[in-house]
Amino acid sequence: MARRKRAEPHENHERWLVSYADFITLLFAFFVVMYSISSVNEGKYRVLSDTLVAAFKTPPKSPKPINVGETAQPSGAVGRAPDPAHIQLPPRPAEPPEAQMARIATRVTRALAPLIAQDRVKVTRNKLWVKIEMDNSLLFDVGSADLQSPAIPALEKLARELAPLPNYIEIEGHTDNVPIRNEIYPSNWELSAARAASVVHLFMDVGVAPERLAAIGFGEFRPLADNDTAAGRRRNRRVAIVILADRNARRMMQIDPGIADGEAGPAATPPTAPANGAGG
Q: Of 33, 42, 253, 264, whose CA is between 20 and 30 Å from 117?
């Protein structure tokens, strides 16, 4: 039997395609990486640039070496006095409310001295407030909430004294019990509130911060005297300017009525009702 010849393996002439495909893949990956590097995020680049500029422009924090512990003085050396600019002073204690109110009462009394001498203004104080009561005939005509011309300079002078202060200021309008009813003011409530608001607007125009001001209308319900007499009604028609030690002073006066008993301020005297006047 004839012996078969062994078949020769077929030689693959396309093996180069494998290497070529690998090369193309690597080349593609290379261009992808190059493209990603060339795409710069402008925002991040600007942040990086600003950070580097700030870092190199910042002056050194400590131009002199820092000594750890106390430096030994050479024997016989005379110690120098400390620099006043580097002395740490203790915090200044806050002024007690009572002292603050006394100081404000003195300033206000000095500013309104002519009117106090005429018995048209009264200044009282205690440890929580300073109260300035102004006769209504000085400020308004009967049944009106428009400030009279002679009253404006006195109120402006008072406002300039109060403008630099941090205290809250409440403007209270008061009337007598004579009814009022017209197209502008249906009752004494509206009239008293409008008078307080007129004083508030003047204070704001002079420079008192509006967030420190409040206008309050009490109508005829906070009388100082008997409304059965003409003199009592004249005294009840008034505007009170109350300078508070803090924003809680009014609440404290309501909780403890004894606190509301004031002391007469410097050079202050009780007002005498003017000879002419009418309801409202």
A: 253
Give the CATH number of the domain where residue 253 resides. Answer: 3.30.1330.60
Q: Per the structure, how many domains does the chain have?
A: 1
Q: Is residue 230 part of a domain?
A: yes
209 is a domain residue:
yes
Residue-number span of the structural domain to which 161 is assigned: 97-264
- pLDDT tens digits in sequence order for the chain, 280 residues long: 555 556 666 666 677 788 888 889 988 888 887 877 766 666 666 766 777 667 666 655 555 555 555 554 544 444 555 555 555 544 555 788 899 999 999 999 999 999 999 999 999 999 999 999 999 999 999 899 999 999 999 999 999 999 999 999 999 999 999 999 888 999 999 999 999 999 999 999 999 999 999 999 999 999 999 999 999 999 999 999 999 998 887 776 665 555 555 555 544 433 333 333 345 7
The rounded distance, in Å, linking the Cα atoms of 259 and 106 is 20
Residue 119 lies in a domain: yes
Tokens of 181: 């009813």
What 3 state SS string does the chain have? CCCCCCCCCCCCCCCHHHHHHHHHHHHHHHHHHHHHHHCCCHHHHHHHHHHHHHHHHCCCCCCCCCCCCCCCCCCCCCCCCCCHHHCCCCCCCCCCHHHHHHHHHHHHHHHCHHHHHCCCEEEEECCCEEEEEEEHHHHECCCCCCECCCHHHHHHHHHHHHCCCCCCEEEEEECCCCCCCCCCCCCHHHHHHHHHHHHHHHHHHHCCCHHHEEEEEEECCCCCCCCCCHHHHHHHCEEEEEEECCCCHHHHHHHCHHHHCCEECCCCCCCCCCCCCCCC
- The answer to whether residue 12 sits within a structural domain is no
